[in-house]
Amino acid sequence: MSEDRDTGENDRVKPLRAAAVGVSTGRTLYGAALFASGFVLPSCVIDTDAKAAKAWARELKITDTAIFGTLSALFDSETQADIALLALPLALRPKVILAFVRQSVPCVVEPPLGETLADCDIAISAAHAANLPLFPLLTRRFDPFVEAIDRLLEDSAIGRVQHIRCDWTLPIAESTVKEISAGGPWHSLLQSVAIHSADLCRLWLGDAFSVSADLDLSKDHTLPQTTSGRRTSETVATLIVNHDGGQATHHFARVHGAQSGERYTLTGTNGELQFVARAGIRQSALAAPSLTLTRNGQRTEEIAVETFGMPASVLRTAVLLDHAAEVVRGLASTLRVTGEDARAALEIVHAAYSASYEGLKVLLPLKQSPDIAAMFRDPNEPLKIEG
After folding, report:
1. What is the pLDDT of residues 207-245, one digit of tens each?
2. Which of 27, 227, 235, 290 has fewest C-beta within 10 Å?
3. Can you list the domains of the chain with their CATH numbers?
């Protein structure tokens, strides 16, 4: 990490040589974090767009001889990689994960790992068979504010957590959320955002066993202006997820404007924690990010969290990369994030689509899977159930 951050035991970590696969979103996902991490160093760039690959390689101080147009060209070369950083369209992720696994190279990859749960299972099984870790970019687990919440929960600051509310507001014009490269159709964006929201609730409440949901299954969302011209918003998805440790409500809305909102409210038997990751339009006066603790019968107090002067999206990705380096070098015995975590979060989201389509509560684990990819291509078609 940066010189200002005390890395402690990490000083013994030998940097990993990283293959950066995919330029267009790779810069967003990994660019700044690679400069913040001292333990994952890019060794090559792979992309079919030679011009873009060369430009990013120049930024990363990689020579032209370490730029490749295909994976085969990389594997046939003398260039070595200890880990692959993938930034790819969803349909390509399982195939590329398998290709690197065959070369005994672990992967960091944005979730979801594939279009279907079966795709996820194939990637996870292949990594297990090769005795390789798989690191999904569930970066919010590594956010310093989330880590502070983890410590407060361990200390029973609010007692037993009973309910978590997750509120997201997503601008109509926003085709991508920073650090989540979910461009394209609205449902692809919703799926990617909801995975991160579901993952945090699994972290705090344990495994999920049922999902109810109300989703707008239309293809696009064009919000009308009021007669006064003021911005309007529209709720497009509400998920109610029952976990072993309590209930989570996820609320997603589309809004006019340029600011995204992201907020988590944890209600316990003895108080409440509120984490405002991004303030959004309606709460633009609030400081973000911020974390507050309100114990029953006491005043609200703000919890100080060290961010080392970095944007949250950069810091948490850099921390994840450093953790990957520790794991690959055998210096960390416990994985803080796994392929199974990404699959479980995706299963919650797919269950939500099934629940909304059928108008019923859906139990987990899923015995049948909705063909989400087909619905993304044409939301007007009936939702097909596979399995």
Report:
1. 999 999 999 876 555 555 555 555 566 788 999 999 999
2. 227
3. 14-139+314-332 (3.40.50.720), 141-311 (3.30.360.10)
